[in-house]
């Protein structure tokens, strides 16, 4: 099913728009479109590469405790390309285990070695956690070397990036999305930089650290196949009965993204509530705790809330396995959660990863991830099918006939069935989608044929018409070889939209770019007046850097390069917060 063959739109209870279609917070919003037809379906090429082989001989490793001294630990050297991690029985922390814990861990080992071992490369930790996907230890605030150029004054603040970093080497199957959340922050002040890496101290992280081993099963890799799913489900129930964990305290990883609203910073993962974190003046990262917003937020929240910088409001949603399958809500400028708005037009469960907002509407693409229990039972594969879409921006528009329309810039993943198994086969297109609210017709136009993801804009243009989009180049996914700048305005002419690009160099890979405006408070400033920032890792030398690129220049010129004191594994989404907000 095409990702935009059905879309759901609900009006936003926005303080700036007096014409609110939701007449009562407890009533469902008006639905303008329940089904649409698709025009101009793009033809996307699929990149392919041979399945990697796993060598039979594996190196040994030691499990060491993280250093407690104030001095930074030694830089972690990247492993050679041919070297893969050993299977983990592994514990980083040595603790005296109780008899029930020892018994349950033995059952876990039996499941992982005999009932459902990681036989596929997509869930084999020796393959998944090789090279720069391997986890690193925490690093306290450490001064960095500015090796090229100078850091612009508008970067005074902190860039923080989230990503999976397993606390313990996996006992069995492991997917790239399964690791504990770790934040990598670079605090900039007066041209100097301090780097720090810290785990988000989630409930899962804390109980497993105390136990000295993994307790909760891996969601993306632990439930493939009927026998393995039944065994791990039973083991999780036994651990819960034994008092090893309480699911009501949350089981999320907080490993996906970050958001700043209500003057607070949050680490997010869509399977749990937000975890509030804060940056100290010396550049350290502290976890404040899991936030249920005075009991008004429960179960979970999207990892991609939308923050309107004009009003200070944040818009979000959650999904669930029982009706209503989708619930929409917002936070006011002070961070207070407002009433839930159930979306009853969503007729089946769907794992919605992202959505878009305009000044008047919230747009939820249906469907991004669907449940496939038959595949789990009969095929031994994942219980979900995935079409992960990142919404870049959306805005309201009136067409030539005077009809209201919604324009969306978003990612459409071609061959989405490979997302959980073979990410290197994924090809993602940045597209412009036009929804005519009168006729219900949806038209789509690719902005480029290149394999792109992690597309971002100037945050000041969220929900408003923008001209420029910046995206990461996947060659192949999930490694990022460079960034591009795109001109949205030429899409209707069916032209290539890429204006500029910056490649990171041979065997150098980055992540999601983030745009930082030079003068965010100047309404007359050009939309592209600012800088793109990203972490980049050189697999030739094993070193990581923080790059600053001029977003206005024709080649996205590098204006500053900061050598980091520790390797930064490839991760997910990041955020820049200015000094005045910190």
Q: Characterize the main sheet.
A: 6 strands, antiparallel
How many domains is the backbone divided into? 1
At CATH level 3, the topology is: Methylamine Dehydrogenase, Chain H
Strand share of the residues? 25-35%
**Number of helices, where a helix is a run of at least 4 consecutive DSSP H or I residues:** 5
Question: Under the CATH scheme, which class?
Answer: Mainly Beta
Report the CATH architecture: 7 Propeller
Number of strands: 33
Kindly state the percentage of residues in helix: under 10%
Q: Structural class per helix/strand content?
A: mainly beta
* N- to C-terminal distance: 44 Å
In the predicted model, the low-confidence regions spanning at least 5 consecutive residues are: 1-8, 10-94
Shape category:
globular
Evaluate the radius of gyration: 23 Å
Average pLDDT over all residues: 83
Keywords: Dioxygenase, Iron, Metal-binding, Oxidoreductase
Organism: Chenopodium quinoa
GO molecular function, one term: carotenoid dioxygenase activity
Cofactor: Fe(2+)
Give structural attributes.
mainly beta; globular; 6-stranded antiparallel beta sheet; single chain; 582 residues; 9% helix; 5-stranded mixed beta sheet; Methylamine Dehydrogenase, Chain H; disordered N terminus
């Amino acid at each position: 099913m095409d990702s935009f063959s059905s879309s759901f739109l609900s009006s936003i209870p926005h303080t700036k728009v007096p014409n609110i279609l939701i007449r009562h917070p407890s009533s469902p919003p008006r639905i303008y479109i329940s089904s649409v037809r698709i025009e101009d379906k793009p033809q996307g090429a699929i990149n392919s590469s041979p399945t990697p082989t796993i060598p039979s001989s594996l190196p040994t490793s030691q499990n060491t405790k993280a250093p407690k001294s104030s001095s930074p630990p030694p830089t972690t050297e990247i492993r050679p390309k041919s070297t893969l991690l050993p299977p983990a029985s592994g514990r980083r922390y040595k603790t005296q285990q109780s008899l029930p814990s020892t018994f349950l861990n033995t059952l876990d080992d039996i499941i992982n070695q005999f009932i459902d071992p990681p036989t596929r490369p997509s869930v084999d930790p020796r393959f998944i956690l090789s090279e720069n996907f391997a986890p690193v230890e925490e690093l306290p605030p450490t001064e960095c070397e500015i090796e090229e150029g100078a850091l612009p004054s508008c970067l005074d603040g902190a860039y923080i990036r989230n990503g999976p970093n397993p606390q313990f080497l996996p006992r069995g199957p492991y997917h790239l999305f399964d690791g504990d959340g770790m934040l990598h922050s670079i605090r900039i002040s007066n041209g100097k930089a301090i780097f720090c890496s810290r785990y988000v101290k989630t409930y899962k992280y804390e109980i497993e650290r105390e136990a000295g081993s993994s307790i909760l099963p891996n969601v993306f890799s632990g439930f493939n196949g009927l026998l393995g799913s039944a065994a791990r489900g039973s083991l999780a129930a036994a651990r819960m009965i034994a008092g090893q964990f309480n699911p009501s305290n949350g089981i999320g990883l907080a490993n996906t993204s970050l958001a700043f609203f209500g003057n607070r910073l949050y680490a997010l993962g869509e399977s749990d509530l937000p975890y509030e974190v804060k940056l100290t003046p010396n550049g350290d990262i502290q976890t404040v705790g899991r936030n249920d917003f005075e009991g008004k937020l429960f179960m979970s929240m999207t990892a991609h809330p939308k923050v309107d910088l004009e009003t200070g409001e944040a818009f979000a949603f959650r999904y669930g396995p029982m009706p209503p399958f989708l619930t929409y809500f917002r936070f006011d400028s002070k961070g207070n959660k407002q009433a839930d708005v159930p979306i009853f037009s969503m007729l089946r469960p769907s794992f919605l990863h992202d959505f878009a907002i305009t000044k008047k509407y919230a747009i939820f693409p249906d469907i991004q991830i669907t449940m496939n229990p038959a595949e789990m039972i009969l095929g031994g594969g994942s219980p979900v099918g995935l079409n992960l879409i990142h919404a870049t921006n959306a805005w309201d528009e009136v067409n030539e006939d005077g009809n209201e329309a919604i324009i969306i810039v978003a990612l459409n993943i071609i061959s989405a069935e490979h997302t959980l198994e073979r990410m290197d086969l994924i090809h993602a297109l940045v597209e412009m989608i036009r929804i005519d609210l009168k006729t219900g017709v949806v038209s789509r136009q690719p902005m480029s044929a290149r394999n792109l993801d992690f597309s971002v804009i100037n945050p000041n243009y969220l929900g408003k018409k923008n001209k420029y989009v910046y995206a990461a180049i996947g060659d192949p996914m999930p490694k990022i070889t460079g960034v591009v700048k795109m001109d949205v305005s030429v899409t209707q002419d069916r032209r290539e939209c890429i204006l500029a690009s910056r490649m990171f160099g041979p065997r150098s890979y980055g992540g999601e770019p983030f745009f930082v405006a030079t003068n965010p408070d100047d309404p007359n400033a050009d939309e592209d007046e600012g800088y793109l920032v990203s972490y980049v890792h050189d697999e030739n030398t094993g070193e990581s850097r923080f790059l600053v690129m001029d977003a206005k220049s024709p080649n996205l010129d590098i204006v500053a390069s900061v050598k980091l004191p520790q390797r930064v594994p490839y991760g997910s989404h990041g955020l820049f917060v200015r000094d005045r907000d910190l």
